[in-house]
Amino acid sequence: MAAPQLTPLEEALSHLLSQAKGLDTRETVELPDSLHRILAEDHHVPADVPPADNSSVDGYAVRFEDVHPGRAIPVSIRIPAGHPPGELAPGTAARIFTGSEIPAGANAVVMQERVDASDDGIVIHTDVSEGQNIRRRGQDLTEGCMALPQGTLIRPQEMGLLASMGFARVPVQRRLRVAILTTGDELVDPGKPLAAGQIYNTNRYTLLGLLAQAGCEVTLCESLADDRTATRDTLFRAADASDLVITTGGVSVGEEDHVRVVLEESSTLSLWRLAIKPGKPLAFGHMNDTPVIGLPGNPASVLVTFLMVAMPFIRKCQGRARLTPTGETLPADFSVDEPSIRREFIRARKACLPDRCTLEAYPNQNSGVLSSACWAGGLAVVPENTRVSPGDLLTYYSFEELLA
Ligand SMILES: Nc1nc2c(c(=O)[nH]1)N[C@H]1C(S)=C(S)[C@@H](COP(=O)(O)OP(=O)(O)OC[C@H]3O[C@@H](n4cnc5c(N)ncnc54)[C@H](O)[C@@H]3O)O[C@H]1N2
Ligand code: MOO
């Protein structure tokens, strides 16, 4: 029997994305609870950050025109950080600290290591230029500018930036509710002993981690035996409770691949043999209007298909601006001698010397080898029907970008 044709990733993705519905509801959360949530409104800068010019060092604020080699300048004021700076009298210096506001009249700060201080004042032993060691008002964020657009994933740095603008509460999208169903008689949860023929359920935990990083709420996380009725019942229950159901396993061609069969009877199933490696079989359908993405069972295939297929779908539902990764171009430090008709996502990492970075590949790229992904920093893309020699340029998606 001839194998059905392979579908390009873009074709499957465009079908999937055309079915992704945006989330309609939002909520407001306290800033500390906003990590991994999606911003639901554009955030413009309400006032300059920092709000005033301030010192980037511990030292002395002066008017640079007052500095003459060997001549002492009296210290007239002391300005601890957090206190109003006042005004600097002409011909004098202000004792100042990192983060202290610059007093009116001063236009430079000299580090204390460059100064001799005595009862007569300070003698400066260095050239002083206008503006030195002054962090300008608004250097981080300028009033009125767009700081964070709607659809931004809030990472630790965005939490900090929101705090720097004074936002204590943040409007965020409702979390996308996602159910995880792993399938297979062989699966046992960690913590229990393995009997013959059994393996530990890996995908459940990979997906829990991926969905947490993607800002989703996991509604239900169950492991299904290879049983058609149980698969059907659980798929309906999961669909009822969720905006999206993700399954792993059971989408290939065997008669024990019940997810495929149940989706076939109950919905408009699209079943693809994707032209990507790993991750060939992929199912997409609906149970009672809830989208179901059926990922293959192999643990490395789950990671790759989640990142390349499910993640853009999730991003679209979340109203994110960027759906697919941009990547960077780097030379390979490995070879692919046998070209594949499937686009290959090689678990790879950057190896950097002072002058250039190359991509190293994990030696075993089998779709059952998840340690490849723990070793790797991301995915290097080998296009369809392409041999690779060291030095050839490849697109590389870091895991950080894929999950940002
Ligand atoms: N005759 C063919 N057989 C297979 C083909 C094919 O085209 N023709 N494709 C192969 C490829 S490629 C893949 S990928 C798999 C996909 O199969 P399924 O999605 O139906 O997945 P399963 O058969 O259920 O499992 C595959 C593999 O992964 C292990 N697995 C499954 N779930 C988990 C889990 N939660 N944690 C850890 N490991 C899991 C499972 O034990 C299998 O070893 O089909 C190939 N076969
Ligand atoms: O399509 Mo599979 O994930 O290569 O083993």
TrEMBL record:
PROSITE patterns: MOCF_BIOSYNTHESIS_2 (PS01079). Gene3D superfamilies: MoaB/Mog-like domain, MoeA, C-terminal, domain IV, Molybdopterin biosynthesis moea protein, domain 2, Molybdopterin biosynthesis moea protein, domain 3. This is Molybdopterin molybdenumtransferase. Its EC number is 2.10.1.1. It comes from Marinobacter suaedae. Keywords: Magnesium, Metal-binding, Molybdenum, Molybdenum cofactor biosynthesis, Transferase. It catalyses: adenylyl-molybdopterin + molybdate = Mo-molybdopterin + AMP + H(+). Catalyzes the insertion of molybdate into adenylated molybdopterin with the concomitant release of AMP.
